[in-house]
Specification:
Elements (H helix, E strand, L loop, with lengths): L5 E7 L12 E6 L5 H9 L17 E6 L3 E5 L10 H17 L3 E9 L6 H12 L4 E6 L6 H15 L9 E3 L8 H16 L2
Parallel strand pairs: 2-4, 2-5, 5-6, 6-7
Antiparallel strand pairs: 1-3, 3-4
This protein binds guanosine-5'-diphosphate.
């Protein structure tokens, strides 16, 4: 897919206030600092469209971007930032819970995982929650350029093995780097194919 246009539409804290146009929607979510803003900018080929937050965990907003005037890319708040207070964690949880429960046009969520880290409980629990709630998702491993090919392969294998302790199968996944563009074509083509299936074009 070629990115012909990508525009920021709105940021808000209420699912009811998300854009009403019935375009297919793809949500990106992950722990703070996982590389979400960098990935979104890399995918959309824009330098600063998604803002890297100076204060991680503070910007708890649902950000909508309209791509090629035909689908929405949604930047959801990052989770798991240690310094966020308990009460704001609750508000955050409510916000994403409501988003996933109410946003009918959501086609797929992408859960971002830093490929350098051991599997984290918070990510595993979040993916379980998605599965229980029948919300389709794929995994995106980020920052692949930070590992040598062999170490990257091992890290992904390690993640798979950890998931297969409780999951019947490994969810589909992409391996990406915002530094060198790895995974960009695969993800955009994947979205393109889904959009075509949905619209019957
Ligand atoms: P967010 O909090 O999830 O939006 O994460 P950011 O996109 O702000 O990235 C967090 C940090 O990781 C920043 O310092 C980025 O420059 C760095 N980063 C993000 N993606 C990559 C990547 O693919 N490769 C490398 N080497 N660094 C990355």
């Amino acid at each position: 897919m070629q990115i012909k246009s990508a525009e920021f539409i709105v940021s808000n804290t209420k699912v009811e206030k998300c854009p009403k146009e019935p375009f297919p929607e793809y949500a990106f979510i992950g722990r703070s600092n996982v590389g979400k803003s960098s990935l979104i900018n890399m995918l959309l080929d824009r330098k600063n469209l998604a803002k890297t937050s100076g204060r991680p965990g503070k910007t708890q907003l649902i950000n909508h971007f309209l791509v090629n005037k035909s689908w929405f890319l949604v930047d959801l708040p990052g989770y798991g930032y240690a310094k966020v207070s308990k009460s704001s964690k609750k508000i955050f949880q409510k916000l994403i819970t409501l988003y996933f429960e109410k946003r009918r046009q959501l086609v797929l969520a992408f859960v971002l995982i830093d490929c350098r880290h051991e599997p984290q409980t918070i990510d595993l629990e979040f993916m379980e929650w998605l599965a229980i709630n029948a919300i389709p998702f794929h995994i995106i491993f980020t920052k692949a350029d930070k590992l040598k090919p062999k170490a990257l392969e091992e890290a992904v294998e390690n993640y798979k093995n950890r998931m297969l302790e409780t999951w019947e199968e490994m969810p589909p996944y992409f391996i990406t780097s915002s530094s060198n563009g790895m995974g960009r074509e695969e993800i955009l083509n994947y979205i393109d194919n889904l959009n075509q299936e949905l619209t019957g074009n």
